[in-house]
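Lay summary. Proteins are chains of building blocks that fold into shapes, and those shapes determine what they do. In this project we predict the shape from the chain. Here is one chain we studied, written as its sequence of building blocks.
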Amino acid sequence: MPALPHHRLAFPLCPLFIFAFPIGNVAYAGTLPPGAPCSPAHDHLDLISHKFVSQCSDLTFCRTSNNDTIGDFNNTLSGGEGGNGTCVPRLCRRDEFPFGYDHEEDIYGVDVPPDLPPMCAQGMYCPDEGSGCKSVLLPGQKCQMGRDEQCDQRYSSAWLSEPKDTVNSTIDLAVSSRDGDGGAVGSSGSDFGTEKVFRIPSKLHANELGADELKNGTGGANQTVRVLCLLQTCTVARIGVNEPCIFENTTYASYDAQGVLVEYNIYRDNCISEGGLFCGVESQRCERKKELGRACTTDVECVSFNCMRGICTRSPETPYAVAPWQYALTILTVVGATASTFTILMLLHKRHRARRYREIGEYYSEQLRFRNAIIALHTNAAEVLDSESDLPIMHRYQKNK
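And here is the predicted shape, written in a compact code that computers can read:
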């Protein structure tokens, strides 16, 4: 099997919901209203967006006398079963705010909330078509594509082993080898295609299991495991290192704001995620994820989940680690900048104060000169007047003598 192209995006074990876009021969969601005749043979997943598509609208599903039960989940992949049906309102919903349900106005112009179908209770799930809540599935049962919540996660607390007695309840987890067009791949010469059983302790009922840790079969520490819908089968992700594994690589496509087609690769496998493992595309065995600087081809191979130009690099959300010398340099820079600013402001203030003091001194000196000049002028004028007024008296006095 060829390696995955590294230029496509990949995300580990996370649900992705993308609506159908008009691409080529993409089948659009149906528009038949409630009560219209339909055929479940048209129920399928869109090849590009993997959105559930049927003849009925997003608010209804095609109901027949045969789809009241779980049925064959492969029907949503290649088309539903034949027969005639009727579009009826959906009986359940997955999301709190489902698509297609708009607010309406009454005769007084007041918004009326839409009549939403109920959400399923704990231990139940709503299928893609919304045909009603169903009990979660046991490992080994068929599930719909990418719907991990359809599998009973409480079974992740049990462990895989050979049964020691007939008292223990068993669930067949046989993974048969399939052909190469999208099925699980068995490993020849190993026990991967042989039957294994999901053993539940006799003292606990299956529905009472609530723990989420699994004892590693090799004697290692407890590992957190998941039950996921892998290749349309509820599978316990508990495969250890160097053990045969299966993986699922799904490509989603959509248009961005500029109208450019963007593809996303969703890679999933049944290796223990807490152990830093992934299912190798070529080896089909659980391998340890690679550290920074190691060669890689896809994001899933790296611990950082970021393969850039064939090298494992830090993920964009990784916090930057500041070295001690960088802290010291930053502190010295801040202190130096503060001291420099204080010194410059103090010198500028001192120069401004000296210039102002000099201006005030010059002003008062000038005022004193003006005052002295005025006093001198006044004194001279008074002396002149006195001399002129005294001159005739002196002259008369001399004549009388």
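What the prediction tells us: DSSP finds two helices and 23 strands in the chain.
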